[in-house]
Q: What sequence folds into this?
């Protein structure tokens, strides 16, 4: 098993030369990844707005996010939420990286990878052995040592989320799994 290296720091400073023109209003970008505050739920929902309207993502609901806030992480630039990710726990062994979103102006600079790494660290800290992702961003997860798998190998996911999903008959997401230990290889 190859270890998933964590973000260089959960608090990162990047120069404007590392970011696109939409971010060049400042000379540095002070990105932090942390647990969100309840007052940031609307900003989290705004990150999904376009994908939900385009039918690429299922909607998330404020009450559900509020109940599971400790299972979410946000990336902030100053006081602006610019990315998020969550973990959904199925049992003592398996959890899923879900709700990965990055503000369009911050894409393409590794923030999505940093959020996934931070979520995997959170899963490890909670004693998980496997981290699942159902995604269209296959290459991002494969770069982070997730491996493609058959979603049918995860009945916990299928029965809880896939069966009632309105996209189940036309799902184009790929299942990938990251092993936090050697017990499932």
A:
């Amino acid at each position: 098993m190859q270890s998933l290296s964590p973000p260089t720091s959960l608090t990162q400073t990047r120069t404007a030369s590392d970011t696109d023109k939409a971010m060049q209003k400042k000379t540095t970008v002070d990105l932090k990844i942390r647990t969100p505050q309840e007052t940031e739920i609307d900003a989290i929902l705004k990150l999904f707005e376009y994908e939900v309207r385009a039918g690429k993502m299922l909607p998330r609901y404020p009450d559900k996010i509020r109940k599971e806030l400790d299972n979410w992480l946000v990336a902030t630039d100053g006081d602006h939420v610019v990315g998020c990710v969550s973990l959904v726990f199925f049992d003592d062994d398996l959890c899923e990286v879900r709700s990965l979103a990055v503000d369009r102006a911050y894409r393409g600079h590794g923030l999505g990878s940093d959020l996934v790494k931070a979520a995997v660290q959170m899963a490890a800290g909670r004693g998980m052995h496997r981290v699942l992702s159902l995604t269209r961003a296959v290459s991002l997860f494969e770069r982070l040592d997730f491996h493609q798998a058959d979603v049918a190998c995860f009945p916990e996911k299928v029965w809880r989320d896939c069966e009632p999903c309105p996209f189940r008959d036309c799902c184009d997401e790929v299942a990938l799994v990251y092993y936090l230990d050697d017990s499932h290889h």
Notes: The helical segments are 41-53, 62-67, 111-125, 138-143, 155-162. The chain has one domain: 11-179. Residues 5-27 have pLDDT under 50 and may be disordered. The first strand starts at residue 11 and ends at 15.
